[in-house]
Amino acid sequence: MNLTLRVWRQKGNSGAGKLVTYPAKDVSPDSSFLEMLDQVNQELVGKGEEPIAFDSDCREGICGTCSMVINGIPHGPQRGTTACQLHMRVFKDGDTITIEPFRATAFPVVRDLVVDRSSFDRIQQAGGYVSVNTGAAPDGNAIPIPKSEADIAFDAAACIGCGACVAACKNSSAMLFLSAKLAQYRHLPQGAPERIRRTVKMVEAADHEGFGNCTNFYECEAVCPKNIPAHFIAEMNRDYIKASLVSREFDDVHKSAEDEG
Amino acid sequence: MSNINLDAKIPPGPLATKWSSYRSQSKLVNPANKRKFNVIVVGSGLAGASAAATLGELGYNVDCFCFQDSPRRAHSIAAQGGINAAKNYQNDGDSVFRLFYDTIKGGDFRAREANVHRLAEVSTLIIDQCVAQGVPFAREYGGTLANRSFGGAQVSRTFYARGQTGQQLLLGAYSALNRQIDAGKVKMHTRTEMLDLVVVDGQARGIITRDLVTGKIERYAAHAVILATGGYGNIFYLSTNAVGCNVTATYRAYKRGALFANPCFTQIHPTCIPVAGEHQSKLTLMSESLRNDGRIWVPKKAGDTRSPETIPEDERDYYLERMYPSYGNLSPRDIASRAAKRVCDEGRGVGPEVAGVRRGVYLDFSDAIRRLGKDTISQRYGNLFDMYKKITGEDPYVVPMRIYPAVHYTMGGLWVDYNLMSNISGLHVLGEANFSDHGANRLGASALMQGLADGYFVIPYTLASYFGGTQLPKITTDHPAFAETERQVREQILRLQSIKGNRSPDSFHRELGTLMWENCGMGRNRAGLEKALKRIPELRDEFWKNVRVVGAAEEFNQQLEKAGRVADFLEFAELMCLDALTREESCGGHFREEYQTEDGEALRNDNDFCHASCWEFNGVGNAPNLHKEKLVFENIKLAQRSYK
């Protein structure tokens, strides 16, 4: 296949970027999208030009490292698929493909298609855990968990933290990501003691990082490579609102989050 | 040869009480003093994240480093199958001893008894810990944890979270790590690559790193250094490893005096999606469970390119069923892998021709679909069939799957004693990066177990013992050893950039990978290894004359990252081949074609090779010194593995 790529090139976070056109020649339809970029990069390096910077690692759809917007859609046109698992046979010979980084205020560009998603880590650090020290655990079977609840928790825990939900959202909201983590713990008894505290702290952290709010466009759900359902956001909002109305803990946590901010 | 004392420091007493008596008697650090110790953890996979989190909980000051943009992306995340633990929840006769025995036997009797027994002991604690963290393990309707069986075991002891067990366990460790980051006990350094180890007066006291975003070279000092940097399977270029996996951290430690043990022990997994073309950057594993219902075959005739459904039954060779009638398609990993290579070498492989050879065999479900119906097959393997289709564009319900073996895991690693400390005082090595627990072959669902055992339950004790019993003078990064190590790191970067040759780092990596796969892959022999040992230095020389590293050092530069890693692979490759050449026996993943039984089984030589081969660096291009740790089996009898 022969293709024309329009690729976002940007030296660093401070510099301005622009779309640059490159030919991608003799691409195998069996190549993954990233292997096609590898091939273009090898040609650029051969000419002494700087290759297109992009993030990837496992290349099997699980690590969440790859992050690019392909023809306007995070991870490209195939549903439930990361860019690394997207294969060139979904495109047609002669296509022009536009490739841009995940764009959001909270995801500053590092270089070209590489963005800084450490804001996601900071949200998790704010409360995305069960406070249990190593060695303090009861026997694994001491807490029976209904299979149906465990399955929901797993559906939520399948999030790979790639950030496609943010890139797709017109508000740059991280709520699908946030709510997936919260739902994992919400549906497990281990998460119950810190449920309110965790919800408030993580929501505040996301606000602080500059992610927007949810206005129910469901773009996040549509691009999520792991098909995380958007109704987790509703669960999260219910917990947050309930906490703000009736929980004394809410005021404490809210206050400390603001102080830290 | 330097005077190295290979004392494994195995505690005295009966096997079953070694670990408990160690814990009762080892030195401790009092809580108020823990905050006076700084610990460096390199790597944030299962071993690194669990170690960093647990040491933070205990009160140590931890600096944790990863080259990925987030600790959650370490390659442990890609493990599919499960994690073993001797819980005996199924009441099917499992025990700590049985898990210990299976692991030793699976490793073809080339691992250290005491370490493996401890691993089996703490396995049960891992499950409890992960459940408490909120890891969503598979459950039965009654709410208890579910188990499944896995290769090399006759009991169901594998815990799992769909096909994403590694992901869920890593996210559990990552959450514990995040809690300590939030508490200020762990400082996380992402997109930061360790480029060298700093040794001061024989003690590991720090590392030199490169910030992958700014290119800044930095020094970090600590009282101990923990490497949890994974395996080196990417030396083959194509493997199931993530593209970033590399040998640099462990190899640089080796160059600073740490012994590298059994580097030739690599594991090949039989059921991966074959290479599709020259563009291929990595290989994807398909769960081995597919072999329960799929039949493996190739055409009888070489060069038969007819589409599979048009090849009549009597012109097909179901070679595993033919050669191993009792095990058939469920022959062990190494047997199945080597048989596939053999038929492809004979020109009977299927699928696209890559570099002149068709490397693939059919895994055909048509009989199973006829017998059980498409629905049953879909229930059993639906997600795997979907993944296969996504990657190959072919529908395995209609066209037979194509599979081929690929490099998956490396059992070799830095030598460690019972404390998981290398021969360099203070340098500890955890998880796949060390050599300790899997011998010559790792059983399925045991990698996750080892990573978490080392990080959650072993290093917290052994590190306290080290701190409690060692004089550690106060050192800052101003010490001359830091300056000298940093100078060498900078020099190598400058050297890489100054060559301005004609070949990309990637092209050298590809060539090295092919050379290693052909000569030090599934089957090895003296001629091939000698050929590789001649070619590797030539390729390395060419690299240092002709590599082209585009871009500057003081910025985000993936070419420079890659060049540094390939440079280390080009040295390490020689060590692997030398180890494979020196080990004149076949065991586990190491198959020397000269040493096989009449039936083509691995022929071990316990008289001459019942040891770990531990290599000491002696300068690039010079033969390293070999030290042997004799493996003593006091609790089990060595036996020939048999699959008849």
Structure, explained:
The complex is a heterodimer of chains A (about 260) and B (about 650). With about 260 residues, chain A is of the alpha+beta class. Chain A has helices spanning about 35-45, 120-125, 145-155, 165-170, 175-185, 195-210, 220-225, 230-245, 250-260, and strands at about 5-10, 20-25, 70, 75, 95-100, 110, 115. In chain A, the strands form two sheets. A five-stranded mixed β-sheet of chain A has the order 2-1-5-3-4. Chain A is elongated and about 60 Å long. Chain B is of the alpha+beta class. Chain B is built from 17 helices and 21 strands. In chain B, the strands form six sheets. A five-stranded parallel β-sheet of chain B has the order 5-2-1-9-19. In chain B, a hairpin with a 5-residue loop joins β7 and β8 (about 215-220). In chain B, α3 (about 45-60) runs parallel beside α12, α10 runs antiparallel to α11 and α15 (about 525-545) runs antiparallel to α16 (about 560-580). The longest helix of chain B is centred in the C-terminal third of the chain and has 25 residues, at about 560-580. Chain B is globular, with a radius of gyration of 24 Å. Chains A and B meet through α1, α2 and α3 of A and α3, α5, α6, α11 and α12 of B.
